[in-house]
Amino acid sequence: MNRIFRVLWNAATGTFVVTSETAKSRGKKSGRRKLAVSALISLSSIMVSADALANAGNDTGKGIGTENGWIAIGEGAEADSTITTKEKVAEDPSKGYVAGAGIAIGYYSKASGASSTALGGYSLAESIGSVALGAGAHTTSTAKYSMAVGTNAVASNLYAIALGTNANASGKNSIALGRDTVSSAERSLTVGLGANAASLDSMAFGYNTSVTSDAANGIAFGSGAVTSAKNSVAIGSNSTATEENVVSVGSDALKRKIVNVGNGAISESSTDAVNGSQLFATNANVTQNTTDIAANTDSINQNTTDIATNTTNINSLSDSVTTLTDDALLWDAASGAFSAKHNGSDSKLTNLAAGTLAADSTDAVNGSQLFDTNEKVDKNTADIATNTDSINQNTADITANTDSINQNTTDIAANTTSIN
Fold first, then answer.
1. Could you list the residue ranges forming a coiled coil in this record (predicted)?
2. How far is the C-alpha of 9 from the C-alpha of 36, rounded, in Å?
């Protein structure tokens, strides 16, 4: 049945050995049951007596012991599997090897690192404190305290962990979980079939996800997602992040929506994402503004037309003013007054309304007002002339009267004398 489950006494060597169900024992039969437990515990690195022999599988296996004791379990070769606390198995090192306090179990397994463990056919634990578990599992000499678990899993750097068939963790403190995963950069992490993380502190989650070597701190999450720029994140199946410091939920060929987003703060300093309802309100305002702008555009166009018309009128008026210059009432700077000269000759102002006649009036007066004044002046002149004649006559009369008065005075004086 090709499995070990019995511990038998070997009289030739004077020791108990773990052997197949087909092997026969000799001597100390009463102690078999107790020693079976001890032998099983020995498989967990508890030492038993030196020179213990093991027959496994087809009963042709052989074990070789060191001075401190070990148990060798193998098939088809000497010391194919060994457990020991010494530095090296004697006999044939190419078929089984154990360093101090190491454990090697399996066909051609080898635990060459101190305190290392190799379990499985052709498993190899080369560095101190490392564990190689599975057919062909390998922890390299540079992979102290690393772990490779799974067929052909490889851990090749300090504290690296490779878990899964063909998993490969080559970065310091890196972790590769899943078949064909690769974590090749320091502190990188891969989870999922074929995932690959090749840059510092990068993470790839999902089937065939990838973070490239120039995408430090990048994250790829979802089947086929790829991040190829620093500090960026690709989320979703076949999403790509090709620019630095971005989060991508799709690719050039594949667009996705982000739903159930809360209202972001809207301010001069806000960096929040906004949702559709917030943008809807903005769009409503933009639509209203568009309508208003369209109306204003019509008004502006009308104003433009009106301005063009006014410009034409102004140009026409300018031409008219230029034409009327000789016929207009112009300011005469030399005399400090408006001049009505036309072609060098004086001219009249006609159709002038009657101005106000008052002590403080500055209105221009017309000819009819001056005519009336002149009429009164002429009459006054005639009256003055008549009065002058009367005054002259009165003066003559007064002179004659004065002479008469003087004569009377003389006569009165003469009469007075005669009376006396």
1. none
2. 11
Angle at 137 between CA 135 and CA 143, to 5 degrees: 165
CB 132 within 8 A of CB 146: no
Strands 154-155 vs 138-139: parallel, antiparallel or unpaired = parallel
Q: 219 CB contacts (<8 Å, ≥6 apart)?
A: 202, 203, 204, 205, 211, 227, 232, 233, 234
Residues 6 or more apart in contact with residue 51 via CB below 8 angstroms: 13, 15, 65
Buried b (16+ CB within 10 A) or exposed e, 94-123: ebbbbbbbbbbbbbbbbbbbebbbbbbbbb
Sign of CA dihedral 325, 328, 334, 336: negative
- Element (DSSP H or E) covering residue 287: helix 276-324
Residues in the chain: 420
Task: Please give the structure tokens belonging to residue 15.
Answer: 């020791």
Which tens digit of pLDDT belongs to each residue from 63-76? 444 433 343 344 43
Question: In the numeric block, which tokens belong to residue 344?
Answer: 């060098």
How many beta carbons lie within 10 A of that of residue 213, not counting itself? 14
Q: What is the CATH number of domain 185-254?
A: 2.150.10.10
pTM above 0.85, yes or no: no
HEC profile of 40-101: HHHCCCCCCCCCCCCCCCCCCCECCCCCCCEEECCCCCECCCEEECCCCCCCCHHHCEECCC
Alpha-carbon distances of 111 from 64, 85, 124, 130, 376, rounded to whole Å: 16, 11, 6, 9, 150
* DSSP letter, residue 234: E
> DSSP character for 265?
P
Kindly report, residue by residue over 95-115, the tens digit of the pLDDT. 455 556 788 999 999 999 999
Structure tokens at 256: 């996705």
What's the distance, CA 106 to chain centroid? 56
Secondary element (H or E) of residue 205: strand 203-205
162 neighbors 188 (Cβ within 8 angstroms): no
